[in-house]
Amino acid sequence: MQIATPYLKFLGDVPDRLAAKTAYGINDWRPEWCVGQLRMEGCAADLGIPDLTLEEAVAKGCKTMVVGVVNAGGVLPEHWVKEIVAALNAGLDVASGLHVRLGSIRAIAEAAERNGRTLHDVRHTTESFPTGKGTKRPGRRLLTVGTDCSVGKKYTALALERGMRERGFDADFRATGQTGVFISGRGVAIDAVVADFISGAVEWVAPAAEPNHWDLIEGQGSLFHPSFAGVSLGLLHGAQADAFVVCHEPTRSRMRGVEAGLPSIQEVIDLTVRCGALTNPKIRPVGIAVNTQALSEAEARTVLREAETAHGLPATDPVRFGVEAIVDRIAAEFPA
């Protein structure tokens, strides 16, 4: 899938920043591809890049409008259709990471055909995956896991890729969600794979490699989330992870989108080890990544110190404070 850049980010009228996390992720890790944003009335997200009309975006060289939002069920609201049709009429391709296929909506399909434009459904792959086998394969793998969804698993894996490469590691980010695919140009949205083939798809994403090569696999959901635990478990088994990092947002009391309470970091560690041992009996935690965006620096450092003391693992906010301590732990636990 070759998506033409640069991008115009379509944010619709989403109610908060988390609902536009695809757009934020691309903006944070590929800012050179982001020309501007298009927001509807009532939109509560702001990428901090120029607000552009479709005509202005085309004049600035934009090639593709990216529907940069996520929502429960991956649906496309009906009142967004006219905006997507207008983008196609303006000469832009359109790419989406939602579950619903753009071409399944008649008005969008007709506009794309009429204007000779391309529709990209990033969440849907043309690959055919086998079932997972759990057979030991060479190479090393790290999986980011979470106490909840939307806590920083993708950002942690990307930060680790950057930090490990700077230290001389042979390391690659492996995308398992639509935003990661936009960022890396390769991968598969695991939550759109038929359940029987999830672990096999992850084995495809992170295949056999050189003994000291690290695949840094983007986690999804949480083993404790009533909606997404099935995806998280299949991903864990397919990753056959040697190491994992627990990702956590400390200000939440409930899991996102449901009434279930948030598990503790220790509960996540224990269940990840227990379940992950099915395909790698030596799986172990190597760090804790805490999303401290909602905290002051002093509060953040206190939370990180407490996490380190409680769990005996390096704890950091990968975006705010870097990942050096976790990379140190990886180097010590897995010498070349």
TrEMBL record:
UniProt domain D-glutamate N-acetyltransferase-like C-terminal: residue ranges: 132-327
Domain D-glutamate N-acetyltransferase-like N-terminal residues, every copy: 40-124
Entries under InterPro entries matching the protein: DgcN-like (IPR011669), DgcN-like_C (IPR035086), DgcN-like_N (IPR035402), P-loop_NTPase (IPR027417)
Domain of life of the source: Bacteria
SUPFAM superfamilies reported in the protein's UniProt record: P-loop containing nucleoside triphosphate hydrolases
Signal peptide: none
Gene3D superfamilies: NAD(P)-binding Rossmann-like Domain, P-loop containing nucleotide triphosphate hydrolases
Name of the protein this chain belongs to: EBNA-1 nuclear protein
Organism: Methylorubrum populi (strain ATCC BAA-705 / NCIMB 13946 / BJ001)
